[in-house]
Amino acid sequence: MAKKSRNKEEEPNEVVANCDNPNEVVANCNNLQETTLSQYDIEKLIVTVRGEQVLIDQDIARIYGVTTKRLNQQAKRNIARFPESFRFELTKEEVGEVVANCDHLQSLKFRPTLPYAFTEQGIGQLSTVVHSKIAIERSIMIMNAFVAMRRFMVQNAGILIRIAHLEKHQIETDHKMDVLLDRMDKLSPKLLPEQIFATGCIWDAWTYISDLVRSATQRIILIDNYVDDRVLSLLDKRAAGVIATIYSRYYEQFQTDLKKHNEQYPAIGFVQLPHKNHDRFLIVDDKVYLLGASVKDMGAGLCAVTKLQTSPETILGLLK
């Protein structure tokens, strides 16, 4: 038996499969003239639907050596022998569960009609309406398989109950963790549209700008007259694939640093400013932030970062 079933009262419609090696089982069932099909092979085909151990009509037909259509026709012609507790039609949701648990039943997804499930009592009745020697012989094997499965369930009831309890406990734990993480997310600091840093708040300012850099998904453009190698370290915090460009004045030392940097790390572009600019700007994707100080000096003195309503293209157009 492969997969465990949960408490019947908790999830009465859950489908549980016992098909550990479905390809081998189907190969045996398809070779209808062979007598090597074992009780163990049949046990693997038993699934649990609506809290009942059942066989799907398609598998029974393979075992009996008849078509699925003929099998169900015989059951319908003798419908009085097959009450709902003996034979029932699966819902679309149950078919989905069966298919998900048993690869050899993938073809159920393409059947024009919904399959039927037969309980142990239904199998017993089938042997009286499907008249063939192989059907009679294999009905006995199927009945023995059901008995063996039931005996296994009884003998291991305590273990199965503990497994169900652990699974329920895990679900409750997962729910508590989701609530906790959601609460933490709500209470965590957010990137505000404007932020003021008092003199000496160098680390706070640096981490704030770092978070802005990390939030980029497409591009980062820094417009700043005065930059150094610290700015390169800051821009390296961007996500993979994000394009970074610096607009600044030309300094020989920085150009050397930039060249060395780009030889090892994802390249950062450089555009020389045509003239000196008073304000500094940080463009993150389609957002524009006005910086009250150069990035390398943020927090050294009273300064602010303000999100503007202006588009990036407007700022970039004014640089020409």
Oligomer description: single chain
Give the integer mean of the pLDDT values.
81
**Main sheet specs:** 7 strands, mixed
Strand content: 15-25%
Helix fraction, binned, reads 40-55%
Poorly predicted regions: 1-13, 20-35
- Topology order in helix (H) and strand (E) letters: EHHEEHHEHEHHHEHEHEHEEEEH
Can you describe what's shown?
- The chain has helices at 22-30, 39-45, 57-64, 68-77, 92-101, 120-129, 133-155, 157-187, 202-215, 229-235, 252-264, 312-318; strands at residues 16-17, 47-49, 52-56, 87-89, 116-118, 194-197, 219-223, 243-248, 269-272, 280-284, 287-291, 303-308.
- The chain has 320 residues and is α+β, with helices and mostly antiparallel strands.
- It has 2 domains: 16-155, no CATH class; 194-318, Endonuclease Chain A (Endonuclease, Chain A, 2-Layer Sandwich).
- It has a 7-stranded mixed β-sheet with strand order 6-12-11-10-7-8-9, with helices on one face. It has a 5-stranded antiparallel β-sheet with strand order 1-2-3-5-4.
- Helix 2 crosses helix 7 (133-155) and helix 6 runs antiparallel to helix 7.
- The longest helix is centred in the middle third of the chain and has 31 residues, at 157-187.
